[in-house]
């Protein structure tokens, strides 16, 4: 094949693959969200973490989404993951959709292949237009999870990228701990790569639908939702379509008030270089998930977002995405961080109860049949959430429906 069609590689990256071509940015004037940029290259500088924590707090309270640069992951590494993803999605459908490769949603297992056109949308005849592959962690614990032979030659590269992605997330989690005035390792210790969790590196591809099909579902490609886990990292690509629900002017960002249902939809802009103008494709779009929302008593809120039909000048090809989803550790207990001085001062959590008070609460809660203080672990929460959201044949309008496991509750905004 011609050299220009082959991904730039450095030994021992083999075999060579057709190079994914980054789409051009849209020329349409869209209502863009004001997304703040967090530059992690200053993380280890004197007072760097404290400055970044203040910036991150403002970014989360402003939109809930933010851009991350200075990650230490090169443009070559990002490009290579897109090349591998493109090669997988180019396989014949029958080679991707064998039963042993598919996500087992009935068990809340999101590892492996999610099949394109597997379900309808909002009770119409329109089918979902996304397919994806989720790579489980490359540890002994997950050796039995779905592994497609297409990825065998790239296993070392995929694992290395996965570990580097989590390293980026761990820095952000350390900053979140500083925001809440907790020990720096408070969150990071519950999200180690070699500890069990449902973390995954995702390759995702949307195929364009006809204008008529999209119109039948309000041009929605992925319905409005908040992310299940702790943090989501999305390597920036230029196809517009990701939108966030901005906060209404009446919402409070400083006290962790109830989830805001106002605001308007705005597009998330691409960020493809660091502040020096280098590193094309290395910028990351990041957002808080519901697990971190729970841990912070909604001081660090998850933000509702969706994917819609791209503008006309970007409808000519599939929309390819590269993600890392950070899930809480399997044994991590998800509950508001009572040890946070900040959350206590704001009245969002109470100080740890005495043993006598805990005993009285347990007796009272037992009368209700379901203890309000029931502990929910990461594995239990994540698996229940995935099953609730995906184990069905239609992605319906779920606005206002309640998901609850133990003392964790989400009011759905999916439509």
From TrEMBL:
Listed InterPro entries: DIOX_N, IPNS-like_FE2OG_OXY, IPNS-like_sf, Iron_ascorbate_oxido_reductase
Pfam families membership: 2OG-FeII_Oxy, DIOX_N
Span of domain Non-haem dioxygenase N-terminal: 35-137
Region called Disordered, residue ranges: 1-26, 246-279, 351-379
The Isopenicillin N synthase-like Fe(2+) 2OG dioxygenase domain, residue ranges: 214-327
Bias (Basic and acidic residues): 11-26, 352-377
Superkingdom of this protein's organism: Eukaryota
UniProt family annotation: Belongs to the iron/ascorbate-dependent oxidoreductase family.
Protein name: 2OG-Fe(II)oxygenase superfamily protein
Annotated organism of origin: Apiospora hydei
